[in-house]
Amino acid sequence: MPARAQGKPVLTSRDHERVRTLVLDRPEALNAFNEQLYDELTEALLAAAADPGVAVVLLTGNGRAFCAGTDLKEMHRRSTDPAFVPGKHGFTGLVDALAAFPKPLVVAVNGLAVGIGLTVLGFADLAFAADDARLKCPFTSLGVAPEAASSYLLPRLIGRQNAAWILLSADWVSAREAREMGLVWKTCAPGDLIETAERHCATLAARPVSSLRAVKESMVAPLRADIAAARERENAYFAELMGGPANLEALTAFAEGREPDFTRIPE
């Protein structure tokens, strides 16, 4: 299989006092994940996990969005182009890296958070959001199934009915609603978001890494089997629905700049 051509980096990284800040950097695409960004973030998480000089990772986005989910134009090409070349890690590799990440992961949601921009919060140890952030899971509006063990992690994090609304409706959730649900821990003014997240990261980074790892593993270890089982179920449904009539209608409608019409699609 030919290698995928790589453009300029779409992820930036900076270190300060044992905190590694990873910034999704496709602002022109609202930081939507294409194959390159999946690969770069996966590699960055693997590197941070292995680096003894990193105690905490802070993940945020550049521009007016945290992450607009999966790049739908590329998703359409993947569904329709037999010559499409996937990345090295892809979505599955990123979720593997998130599920296995052994150190505190802090997420700062600036602006829009869609799809993986929301479901990543299921793997976050702390999550902050700007007051003007808006979040949603668009799965039913795309004719597909949940992802990233969100069918398990979201009910556990925010309760069954809150999770059901987010996963079933594909509707927006405000930062205030996200805080009230427990989807994010704290909200603040957009201009204070990074400073607030960095201040909390600094507190964690002052602790011994061995202790941070032990605490996180103690919290996560009992969940691993259920996370894996949820991912297996979700992946099976996603594979069944991806490229199906509802999904193709959603992607075609997106490419044509119109709302999808699912009413004529048979069950």
TrEMBL record:
Keyword Isomerase included in the entry's annotation: yes
Keywords, comma-separated and alphabetical: Isomerase, Peroxisome
Gene3D superfamilies (UniProt xref): 2-enoyl-CoA Hydratase, Chain A, domain 1
Family matches, as InterPro entries: ClpP/crotonase-like_dom_sf (IPR029045), ECH/Chromodomain_protein (IPR051053), Enoyl-CoA_hydra/iso (IPR001753)
Record's subcellular location: Peroxisome
GO molecular function, one term: delta(3)-delta(2)-enoyl-CoA isomerase activity
Keyword flag Signal: no
Domain of life: Bacteria
Pfam families assigned to the protein according to its UniProt record, in alphabetical order: ECH_1
The protein, known as: Enoyl-CoA hydratase/isomerase family protein
Gene source species: Amycolatopsis acidicola
Lineage, broadest ranks: Bacteria, Bacillati, Actinomycetota, Actinomycetes, Pseudonocardiales
